[in-house]
Input
Amino acid sequence: MSQNKQDTGFSFYIPLVLIAAFLMGCLAISLMDIREKASSVISDNPVSAADAVIKENTVRKSPVYNDGGLKFRLVSASDLGIGNKSVSQPDVPSESSVSSRTETANLDGGLKLPMEHYINFVPHKSGCVAYLTFDDGPSENTEAILDILDYYNVKATFFVIYHKDMEDKYKAIVNAGHAIALHSYTHDYSSVYAGEASFFNEMEMIGDYIYRQTGVRTMLMRFPGGSSNTISRKYSKGLMSVLKKSVKERGYVYQDWNVDSCDAEKSNTPPEKLLSNVRNSLGSKKTAVVLMHDGGNRTGTTVQALPAIIEFFYEKGYSMEKLDMTVEEIHHNW
Ligand code: ZN
Output
């Protein structure tokens, strides 16, 4: 009897075991299928794979910006092969710098770099500084630039002109803690360089406009085209030598640049090229005033390249700060 019962029990479980085995088999096959499909998506579509890297390394909010029909695919230094591999450790950090770095990493509002980048950021003892500057904005790129600067906790300087219907962007620049500075009202060379009176009228108009939008009154400026521009000769011969003297007399401080991304020279310059322009023109300079454009690069490659440019300076040991009236002026002397 008992033998019969056991037999019955065993044979009762056989179909259950078979069903379970069948279900597990199905599950294993479908998992393999999913993995195969996923890997074929990644290998067939390099953009998906790159975006995965970008998500880790760049902006928290979104790796792709859509604004006015523009799409920015941000590029980080490691995407361009200059990431952690080429980290220069210029000085052995002292104990205090190590501990302060650790503290900063743990503080709210401190450096927001991913840890891997952060650890590699060892400032030069000699105090190398890069002043990132963005000309001709605000623009449809401003928000993305501000997001990237915020992500890296970097302060920069915006040399702005007047743009219609962008009131909130002037304010956003100031609210984010960046320097806003004068770059003329129209950027129209025929007006800016029509003569001394016209030039100062342009500067006063943009100064007043910035003040109305932001409450900031600034005398920090950059000449449209730089102080070395030759375009002004077309409108007033000899004007630049007059202006360079008279801006000082009127209390303005002007900054040219000594590192050029060449981002507005032609449209759609690839981000890789913008980064290499910055690297090449940096050379061994300890103070870098870096020319980039907020306006004037409608294709958005400046935005694409910005994470890589910031990471490049971090890895070189530069701190990135905003300009003010006390920073030693970089002037073109050619
Ligand atoms: Zn300009």
Notes: The mean pLDDT is 76. Residues 2-44 form the longest helix (43 residues).
